[in-house]
Amino acid sequence: MKEMIYQTVCPGCNMGCGLYIREDEEGMLAVDFMKSSPANLGKLCRFGMQLPHHYSKATSMVGGVEASIEDAVQAASIKLKGAKNVAMLAVGATTSEEHLAFCRIADAMSIVVNTGIRAYGEIPSECHPAVGMGLPLEDIEQAKRIALFVDPYTQYPLLVRRLRAAKRNGATIVAVGWQDMNLADENKYIGPDQYESELGLDSDSIIITDVHPHTDPEQVKQVLNLALMTGARSLFMKPFVDSTGAQLLSKGKGHKGLRELMDGINEGSIKTLVTLNSDPLELMPNSDEAAGTLEKLDTLIVITSREGAVNKLAHIVIGTEPLYAKAGSFMNVEGQVLNNSGTGTSGIDAMSTLAQNLGGAAFDFQALHNKVLESIVQEYTRPKYRELVCKLMETAEVGDGRGNLVCVSNPFMWFDQPDDNDFVMVNMNMVKKLGLRKGGMITLTSDAGTVNVRYTVRDVPDGLILSMKKLPVATGSTTEVAMEAA
Ligand code: SF4
Predict the structure, then answer these.
(1) Could you tell me the end-to-end alpha-carbon distance of the chain, in angstroms, rounded to an integer?
(2) 190 with 200: CB under 8 angstroms?
(3) Minimal CA–CA distance to 284: which of 213, 217, 215?
(4) Within its chain, how far is the Cα of 455 from the centroid?
(5) CA-CA distance, 421 to 261, in Å (whole number)?
(6) Does ligand 1 have an atom closer than 6 angstroms to the CB of 12?
């Protein structure tokens, strides 16, 4: 095989950063910058730079034994025909065309595809466009004032470029979070009841927040209300390469959260799980606990382009071509359709056969691609909805060795990739109170278990433990924990 060069999009988040993947004769991969890419102008964050590590080719398997993709599809068809209590999960980590193909299989079984984001199930459907639909990234640069509810450096690094441009154009930035952000003109540590009065937003403002499988729906509602009351536009950042496309293409259908799906398996209401490029072991805070849950299934069918941890637990793996080699497109957070240069359709062809075996219609890549193009978000229109009733978000009483653990999501966390951020941040007051030793560790205990982790001292609020990696004791965006010196 001669060297191949693929034009593709980084799967680390929904920014839509373009790049080239070079595959040499031995199958070794390298990343090349794509200066013409509008979302990132050739720049990549450290996740994007490590992409060869992310692409590990999947092998089709049946019952733990290597099989052809055709045999894996036939085995999956037999398991799914007439099966009850089936759930499907696709978070948006593959092309829009594959997501649509997956939806067609769901249609054939009269079930829905879950994107794993609980917030969509908890907000009224008229609010879905406000969350699912983004706005042009260039508009950030023209905003007069920006309220940031994310840490762009950690979570969506290529946002920083847009925010710097906005500042050069005269914008002021107010950050609402847990630690001072250099980029911000003001840093506020305030609760939702003060958002409207303290953030100084109006119709020339943009609120930047995010929505992902562990987002507290109440936080989404609070931001929607803030946008409604102030007239500001909202931009919900998202964590997977096709998060926007997946949401749009699954619209109108039920969305179970990832944790709800895992609860369903534990309670026995879900007996068969079919996933598309979505690994619950990587996505859940506690991989071991998630593995224990998946082992309760009668059947686990994994359709994937990667060799993830879940493949080893699956009864059937339908291994498709790597993401960069697929024919297809992704919809980024702006609603732009970004095309892959690959021509592989083994995933779509496998899903077409599966859909037909289950009584559905055949489809091909071109038909799916045309449907995706019909669904393009053309331009931002202000979504219409009414003020939402919000519950109080629960946090722990700080003190007496108790605090709140906040895990800030980032691309490394979603794909369980090695990262150097293997510490939590606490302030000096907590170090003194808990008697933490220099170079020592802190023990965190929640309802989900106990973990020992390295710490570093930062200027964060008292009682807050901030983590940039997933921790097995986390149960949501914010987790009440007991803490002591390890
Ligand atoms: S992880 Fe996100 S910000 Fe980083 S290169 Fe990939 S798409 Fe861009």
Answers:
(1) 53
(2) no
(3) 213
(4) 26
(5) 29
(6) yes
Sign of CA dihedral 94, 418, 302, 300: negative
Q: Are 226 and 219 in contact (CB under 8 A)?
A: no
pLDDT, one tens digit per residue, over 162-196 is 999 999 999 999 999 888 888 999 999 898 999 99
Summarised one tens digit per residue, pLDDT across range 234-288 is: 999 999 999 999 988 886 566 789 999 999 999 999 999 999 999 999 999 999 9
Burial (CB count <10 Å: 0-12, 13-18, 19+), residue 418: exposed
Rg (Cα) of the chain, in Å, rounded? Answer: 22
Ligand 1: which residue has its CA nearest to atom 1? 12
Task: Tell me the CA–centroid distance for residue 40 and ligand 1, in Å.
Answer: 9
Cite the beta strand spans of 183-266 per DSSP E. 186-188, 205-210, 233-237
**Opening angle at CA 92, ends 87 and 97, nearest 5:** 95
Q: Which residues contact 328 (CB under 8 A, 6 or more apart)?
A: 94, 95, 96, 97, 98, 339, 340, 342, 348, 365, 369
Q: Is 85 exposed, middle or buried (0-12, 13-18, 19+ CB in 10 A)?
A: middle
- Cα of 15 vs centre of ligand 1, distance in Å, is 6
Handedness of CA 379, 382, 384, 387 (dihedral sign): positive
Q: What predicted TM-score, i.e. pTM, was given to this entire model?
A: 0.93
Interatomic CA distance for residues 89 and 94, integer angstroms:
12
As beta bridge partners, residue 391 has none
For residue 49, the ligand 1 atom closest to its alpha carbon is 5
| Alpha-carbon span 434 to 416, nearest angstrom | 30
359 alpha carbon to ligand 1 midpoint, in Å? Answer: 39
Q: Which amino acid belongs to residue 275? A: T
Give yes or no for residue 152 CB within 6 A of ligand 1.
no
